[in-house]
Amino acid sequence: MGAVYTQLSLKERRRIEDWWHAKVPVREMARVLKRHKSTIFREIKRNFWADDAFPKKYAGYFGHAAQLQTDKRRSVQRKLIRHPDLCKTVVAKVKLGWTPEQIGNRMIYEGAKLRVCQETIYRYIYSKEGMDQELWWYLPEHRMTAEKGDEAAETLLSATPTRPEVIICVNDLVVVGAIHACRKAGHRIPDDISITGYNDIPLIDINDPPLTIVRMHLYEIGLAAGQLMLD
What we know:
Layout: H1 10-21, H2 26-33, H3 37-46, E1 48-49, E2 60-61, H4 63-77, H5 79-82, H6 84-95, H7 100-110, H8 118-125, H9 128-132, H10 140-143, H11 146-159, E3 166-168, H12 172-184, E4 194-198, H13 202-205, E5 212-214, H14 218-230
Parallel strand pairs: 3-4, 4-5
Antiparallel strand pairs: 1-2
């Protein structure tokens, strides 16, 4: 983490517009601008203009309109800068393990007059202010790793006066880290401490000792959720 990405300039966006209308390949655009091709693909997709009131031939990518759209999105992101109390609330929830989706949807559910959407929270997390606070660390995709499981289990073992009998982990990668931490502390698994988790990834099948894992049938869960919505 900590990489800094520069925004496309208006001049670059106008060049992309000219190339897009001339059907220049994205790979060539990226080469000339010295950008990754995914950056160009995302830029065109995100700022593609179309209006049902106009014939499709008028739809397309327009540099100046793309710049205006970007400026508007960035001004929305600054909402957390303009409202310190709102920012404080959001940051506190992020540090408690809430995802941006949970925070945004909760504000909608509670009917908060001043609220932000998940995209705004993500932008803040990866902004200079958010990076200074290392808020990215609290996101699930960074917390749920073997390394974080090792750190969390080590903290648990050092903070608990009596040895825990069971450690329940949020996923299998965290299980691997927790086992490592317990063994470093001289505990035997499962004789001294039982460890269990969720997901049942193939890696767990070869773990020594064998572990009890709750298998998550994600396809079936998604199918059932979709059927409930349609009923």
